[in-house]
């Protein structure tokens, strides 16, 4: 770690905190995700290896760039060095707009949607650097906290980056092979997960629908005091309309991603 100068802690990701760092050779600002694997069980350690391998093999302008990983065995720590996203995460932007009672401009929402579709397409259908096929990657925890911005000026172009693959999963055949256990944010849990069915690439699209809805409404589409009530609301699929200021196109887009039957159809094969 003597290659880097440690700066302030700027957030937390799955399994560890995020620290801003400066690369000494060229003063480039990066981030370091610090993970203490001392308390991790075997399954969590395997998931950590998966996260690093996935990030190392994913190269796309809308996915946070991975630089290297550093293992500090003496202190049971793994450091993942990744690109710095000056605009922070979408969760902070939503919280700011909710506090100021100001809607997020529709143009910005389409910008976020289009870039996350490109990021998910790379995950689900991308190939290796030499163009050869590789197994699909499910993110499984797409939420505002895991989407980062190159800048936080919502009226100008911003580069959107999908980050934190801490719960991601490699799937050899997305049409047949399913992840067997659900992880991630209950608010964005897709219907098939509620029926103890398996998670697959279309579940990431459901989560994208929840995220785009939340950018419009400044709150998640499904909320409840308990997970049981939340599951009931998600299965019912009833969602309050987004503010009237947004276009019919955006309304229809969200409706198509939060279409329970579309998600269920993947099991009527
Ligand atoms: C208050 N914190 C921030 O504004 C903030 C900023 C400016 N950047 C971040 C986070 C990341 C960042 O800048 N690059 C990242 C790469 C991977 C992951 Cl999991 C997180 C980050 C955060 C949380």
UniProtKB/TrEMBL annotation:
Keywords: ATP-binding, Kinase, Nucleotide-binding, Serine/threonine-protein kinase, Transferase. GO terms for molecular function: ATP binding; protein serine/threonine kinase activity. It holds the Pfam family Pkinase. The keyword Cell membrane does not apply. InterPro entries: Kinase-like_dom_sf, NEK_Ser/Thr_kinase_NIMA, Prot_kinase_dom, Protein_kinase_ATP_BS, Ser/Thr_kinase_AS. Its EC number is 2.7.11.1. SUPFAM superfamilies: Protein kinase-like (PK-like). Residues 4-269 form the Protein kinase domain. ATP binds at residue 33. It catalyses: L-threonyl-[protein] + ATP = O-phospho-L-threonyl-[protein] + ADP + H(+); L-seryl-[protein] + ATP = O-phospho-L-seryl-[protein] + ADP + H(+). The keyword Transferase applies. Belongs to the protein kinase superfamily. NEK Ser/Thr protein kinase family. NIMA subfamily. This is non-specific serine/threonine protein kinase. It comes from Anaeromyces robustus. The lineage of its organism: Eukaryota, Fungi, Fungi incertae sedis, Chytridiomycota, Chytridiomycota incertae sedis.
């Amino acid at each position: 770690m003597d290659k880097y100068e440690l700066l302030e802690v700027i957030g937390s990701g799955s399994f560890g905190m995020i620290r801003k760092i400066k690369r000494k050779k060229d003063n480039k600002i990066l981030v370091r995700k610090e993970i203490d694997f001392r308390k991790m069980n075997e399954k969590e350690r395997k998931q950590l290896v998966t996260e690093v391998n996935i990030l190392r093999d994913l190269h796309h302008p809308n996915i946070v760039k991975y630089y290297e990983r550093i293992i500090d065995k003496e202190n049971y720590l793994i450091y993942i060095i990744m690109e710095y996203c000056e605009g922070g995460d979408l969760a902070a932007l939503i919280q700011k707009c909710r506090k100021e009672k100001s809607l997020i401009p529709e143009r910005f929402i389409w910008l976020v949607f289009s870039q996350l579709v490109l990021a998910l397409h790379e995950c689900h259908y991308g190939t290796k650097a030499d163009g050869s096929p590789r197994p699909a990657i499910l993110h499984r925890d797409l939420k505002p906290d895991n989407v980062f911005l190159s800048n936080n000026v919502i009226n100008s172009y911003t580069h959107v980056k999908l980050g934190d693959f801490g719960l991601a999963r490699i799937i050899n055949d997305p049409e047949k092979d399913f992840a067997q256990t659900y992880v991630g944010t209950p608010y964005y849990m897709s219907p098939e997960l509620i029926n103890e069915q398996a998670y697959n690439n279309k579940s990431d699209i459901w989560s994208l629908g929840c995220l785009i809805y939340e950018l419009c409404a400044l709150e998640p589409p499904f909320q409840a005091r308990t997970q049981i009530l939340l599951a009931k609301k998600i299965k019912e699929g009833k969602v309050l309309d987004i503010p009237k200021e947004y276009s019919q196109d955006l309304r229809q887009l969200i409706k198509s991603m939060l279409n329970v039957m579309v998600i269920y159809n993947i099991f009527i094969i």
